[in-house]
Amino acid sequence: MLVEAGVTDARLYGADEEGYGMGAFFLLLDDPEVYGMPPDPEVVTRKFASLWGPAAAAAGAMALGIAAAFIGGAR
Amino acid sequence: MDRPDLSVSRDSGDDYPSYYGRPVIKEPVWSWEIPWYFFTGGLAGASSCLGFVAGLTGNRWLGRTARLVSLGAATASPILLISDLGRPDRFYNMLRVFKPTSPMSVGTWVLSSFGAASSIAAATDVLGILPYLGRVAEGLAALLGPALSTYTAVLVADTSVPVWHEARRELPLVFAGSSAASAGAAAIILAPAESGTPARRLLVGGAAVEVAASKAMKRNLGKLSEPYEKEEAGRYEKLSTALTIAGAATVAFAERRRKWTALGGALTLAGAAAKRWSIFKAGFQSARDPEYTLKHQRERLARRSTEGRRTETFGGNGRAT
Asked: Which residues on neighbouring strands pair with residue A17, listed in sequence order?
């Protein structure tokens, strides 16, 4: 209908994408930025592995590093 | 039928569209206590590990010093957090749930159990009572310590603040190096010089990791590293690098000369604190400026459309790039 009305660059913003959405979506008539919204929003908490993985690795490295500080004399 | 002009304003005077140049995301609401908590939490976590290994290897004085440092820093941490929250019962309310996807919830539990364990470890050691309980508590504190030192990096990375979120792979290592260096530094300042060699090695190693991981982080951030280089964050960043390198160099060449190692330790501690402040401030600076949220996401979007995934626009002219 919008296309018929000559509005050719409207878009659905925040609609389901790759299996999940943001829980809300909007029909926008221009780029999202123009409305003060991010063009490619993401739910950051869903990056569980890339958030906690490096932290676990860094924690392990720190523990090993502290143990290594005692190599070659504990005093 | 003519298209009605519904556009708001593309023109903000910049080379990318935005809503009158206004920020897209809100700045965090954290106050000054938070970067200091990152510092004390990191120091406490790494110190408990240092104390544990020192105990295992029979270095009694280093062990006791590190345990007391850990206790002190672990005591300061919840005070800082409660001061940021405003009321003690808000901290207590955090303990009523455990939510693995929330770094703040995980952190509250880690900090609370760590605080209990490190208090028992330090108390049994100093009072010379219940050695078995003390060893169990110390082991627990040493296990939780590395988590306490690094989870705070996840705390900032698990936000929409671009310079934090996009640095999520390197930030924990920056925090780990900085924490290790500060644990070594505190132990050097407080422990007798003849038992401080492992602490000196730890300081130098941790400082090297801190500086190298920060460099790698900024390289991988590309254009998003700018907030780390300018204004307040930039000043803290330069200060941190200079202090950390100077501190590590002083300690490396001072051997067991007490005054010099203490000076090097103090410089390193200041460098570690400045590092947390730099990261903290960079997040605020990048949130304030829509450029960092918008340009970065535009580029990501463009990358993805060329890869051929996504882009469903209503009306189908594919203008999402």
From this structure: A20
